[in-house]
Amino acid sequence: MTEEELPKMMELFQSPLYKTIPAVKNNRIYNVSREKWNSGPYLVEEGVDQLMGQLSKQ
Q: What percent of the chain has pLDDT over 70?
């Protein structure tokens, strides 16, 4: 997320509609850096590894 996007994202996270999403209500939201997903197949694998690392900590 860029510095310019942060205020809008924080606003979204506080919105009543966002809070009704089942994954949000059940604390099942995971943050993965956008750079990993938008830079080709090799970095996508790193993104998947990062996500799996977050999931395995539960």
A: 84
Q: How far is CA 57 from the centre of its chain?
A: 16
Domain hosting 15: range is 6-56
Domain count, the chain: 1
Please indicate, yes or no, if residue 23 is contained in any of the structural domains. yes
- Where does residue 6 rank: exposed (0-12), middle (13-18), buried (19+ CB within 10 A)? exposed
Query: Cα–chain-centroid distance for residue 39?
Result: 16
Question: Rounded distance, CA 36 to CA 34, Å?
Answer: 5
Please indicate, yes or no, whether the overall pTM of this predicted structure exceeds 0.70. no
